[in-house]
Amino acid sequence: MSDDEQPGLSRRAMLAGGVAGALGLAASRAQAQQAEGQPLLGNPRLPEPAGQRMRWAIVGLGTYAVGQIMPAFGDARLSRMTAFVSGNPDKARTLGKRYGVSRFYGYDDYDDMAKDDEIDCVFIALPVGLHAEYTIRALEAGKHVLCEKPMASTSAECEAMVEAARKADRRLGIGYRVHFEPTNREALRRIGGGELGPLRQIRAEHGFDANPDWPPHKWRLEQPLAGGGSMYDIGIYGLNTSLMMLDGDKPVSVSALYAYPREDPRFSEVEGGLDWRMTMASGLIVSGSSSYCYRPFASRQTYFGAQASITMPLATTYYDNTLILQDGGRRKIGAGTPASQFAGQLDGFGEAVREGRPHRTPGEMGLRDIRLIEAMYRSADEGGVEIAV
Ligand code: NAD
Fold this sequence. Notes:
By secondary structure, the protein is an alpha/beta fold. It has two domains: 50-178, Rossmann fold, CATH 3.40.50.720; 180-336 and 362-388, Dihydrodipicolinate Reductase, domain 2, CATH 3.30.360. The protein has eleven helices and 15 strands. The strands form two sheets. The protein has a nine-stranded mixed beta sheet with strand order 14-13-12-11-7-10-9-8-15. It has a six-stranded parallel beta sheet with strand order 3-2-1-4-5-6, sandwiched between helices. Nicotinamide-adenine-dinucleotide is lined by residues 60-65, 87, 125-128, 130, 148-149, 175, 177, 215-216, 219, 225, 233.
């Protein structure tokens, strides 16, 4: 996103409201963002000089880190990369040249980061089974940590991570980028503002087709590195995003059934699919599916209200999220530049660290979600019984 582009402002809003109206809207959005204490996306503040930005080490130079997170620093206004941690020094140095990064660590000298004053925050982009260990070691080295989702393999690991952050007096966040994604922020604004009336049901469907021969999918099918199956990796988007829309409402019970084809050799260690259901304190039902068998993929959220509904046929993708409001008519609503969610997440975390404010997606949120998924697995193991949470 260019510096002069207004965050959260669609081209349609610009055309419909005129530039003055659009800037007024942008200003009120910016105020709302500041009141909330987190940037919405691409930060309304001016970029900081490089010397004052939060300095990040990226741990694990895989598909997500290289494809999405590193390029996002180009859109960030408060963050810059200073170090890479990798088991592949050639790859680290090649990427270092591209991004002007000259500090490199391996997994053996990882703890030496404690002595490195050029690193404030660490971004963990490793397979899930390694999240807890590398997060805790980074916290003990005195760094703030933004760890990718799902938080860890078990709720016990998540608890240890939260405790390590408390003990080290460092911030721990989870990489739920959707909380910084403008189309979802727009859905949240409309749902929270009562535009749909009381919510009646939420439906979430998320999945892709797992390829056991592709390294980033291979570890997702191996329990020790993946922690869990499709619900851990992709179903969690439906769970977390639905809960994001339900301010104040809390889950009281869950149930689930395994949906994988049992004869499929890909799913001998982790589940290929889970159909799940969650009852909220208000009585609202949130239900969804997760799958490693959806071809090519599904990323769908639907919010049914008493007066209107929001359908997001693409709800949690990197770039293409879409919001359709059905309130008698049918309106497609644009809400900004989806790609800026990556930069918004980085800047938001750094800003929370620096200003001592809560982060929008803290470790406790990651722990909550893993506890809920564990309860879903317990339910599925027992044939779908209702489990109080
Ligand atoms: P990947 O396999 O492409 O990358 C993993 C990296 O970890 C690789 O660089 C690999 O070399 C390194 N690694 C270190 N030790 C390893 C080991 N013992 N086994 C395997 N790899 C090892 O995976 P990815 O898709 O980039 O996922 C990395 C993390 O990012 C995961 O936690 C995943 O859930 C998360 N992720 C998040 C999003 C999102 O949208 N938030 C999207 C994709 C992935």
